[in-house]
Amino acid sequence: MNTNSTSVFSIPDLSFLNSPVPPTKAFYVDTRSVWNNIPDGIFALIAPVVAYWTFSLFFHIIDTYEVFEQYRIHPSEEVLKRNKAGRIEVLCEVLFQHLIQSVVGYVFYYFDKPVLTGYENHAMWQWKTTLTSSSVGSIFFSSLKPFSITNTLVNYAVYFVYQYGISFAKILGGFLIIDSWQYALHLLMHTNMTLYKKFHSRHHRLYVPYAYGALYNAPLEGFLLDTLGTGIAMLITGLSPREQIFLYTFATLKTVDDHCGYSLPYDPFQMIFPNNSVYHDIHHQPWGIKSNYAQPFFIFWDQTFNTIYPGYEEYRTQQRKVTIAKYKEFLANREKKKK
């Protein structure tokens, strides 16, 4: 993930980690790119937009041709019957949201400092030296031989933690920051009726969400909630352009999946994260609109502030995973209790 390897997946010669002398440390601008000589900072703006419409197109196709009707959360006729916004309006609003997102992202990119490289081998050498010479490390690694299996494993461990472990921690931190930012603003939009009526009510015109309506928001809300929130996460965690590509694209795909209107089996987003399409669908219903505010990754803020839809947490724990059949059963049981 870091921009300091010779290519995205290659493992360079790590013999420098066995040297008693540290590698030369230099600083120069990194001009390498992930794809087709496009600067990574620019690609970080392009990739999420392409991912949004590609993933949305997938769901639009299975929606149009009724490929996975057994996994649809709501009957298709409810989209026209219950939604208060037409598809063309939604399309135009999302395109405008992407325009705002791209312009703001470019401003961040323009003022961002150039990515430097040339110092990474020196840093990894220092990591290993510190590890093996520490009071604890010296017990286990005091007699490392350059070509021993243990030494090779230590070298690979240092390399992978430095190259990928740090990136993983930063991106996970970005997830937590985005969740915290969006929960706070989302809750505010629902508790302050002025803000709700002027801004957030537009998103709730879609009672039956669908994929490309994920970013259907009032422009100011979209800027504050999505664009600015993700930008703040990037700044706080100090993401490199390559890490930005992953965070922005992954978050975009997750948001589309949350609004897709399907609970597909083996969907990795819905298998990994408890905050999924079914969980967020409850929030879009008139009876669940005052609950399930957490988005887009985790539900710990809903758990902390007790804003999960009543009975859902117990139901989710008992069933371990809410499938579409179980969710429809949940809705049916709810209707019976009302009667």
Q: What can you see in these coordinates?
A:
Helices cover 60% and strands 1% of the residues. With 339 residues, the chain is mostly helical. It has one domain (40-115, 154-338). Strands 1-2 form a two-stranded antiparallel sheet. Helix 6 runs antiparallel to helix 8 (219-237) and helix 6 (149-191) crosses helix 9 (241-258). The chain is elongated. The chain starts with 27 loop residues before the first strand and ends with a helix. The mean pLDDT is 89.
Broad shape: elongated
Average predicted local confidence, pLDDT: 89
The biggest sheet amounts to: 2 strands, antiparallel
Biggest β-sheet: strands ordered side by side in the sheet: 1-2
The oligomeric state of the chains shown is single chain
The poorly predicted ranges are none
Helix content: 55-70%
Q: Give the count of structural domains.
A: 1
Q: Helices and strands: which structural class?
A: mainly alpha
Radius of gyration: 24 Å
Approximate strand percentage: under 5%
End-to-end span in angstroms?
55 Å
Q: Could you tell me the number of beta strands?
A: 2
Topology:
Blueprint: E1 28-29, H1 40-64, H2 77-82, H3 87-111, E2 116-117, H4 120-133, H5 137-141, H6 149-191, H7 193-198, H8 219-237, H9 241-258, H10 268-272, H11 277-284, H12 300-304, H13 312-319, H14 324-338
Antiparallel strand pairs: 1-2
Helix pairs in contact: 1-3, 1-9, 3-8, 6-8, 6-9
